[in-house]
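Journal club side-thread
Mid-discussion, someone asked how the predicted structure for our own chain would compare to the paper's figures. Pasting it here so we can look after the session.
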Amino acid sequence: MAKSFTTTIGGSKVELPGTIRTIREALAPELVDAFIEDVEDAGPDEVPGVLARWALRTPQAHDPGEEEQVARILDGDTSGLVYADEGDECGSAG
């Protein structure tokens, strides 16, 4: 079985940790307890999905450009934002 996950983020191939230990070590300290609880409560068929979901929360999965986009939107700059429903009169993104 693979010891890592590979995904594409922002057009670049990213290798993510793929074991309980390496994911736990890569997570921010405030997330570790929730991760351990999630893994311990997962059924055998759920473990790969749980590990993949948490691996995506590690710093390797972080897209630096995404942080800039979020900051811009929080500052009120919604230029370039594409709405899910172009007929949405309220301008909501969902």
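Post-session note: The chain is about 45% helix and 15% strand.
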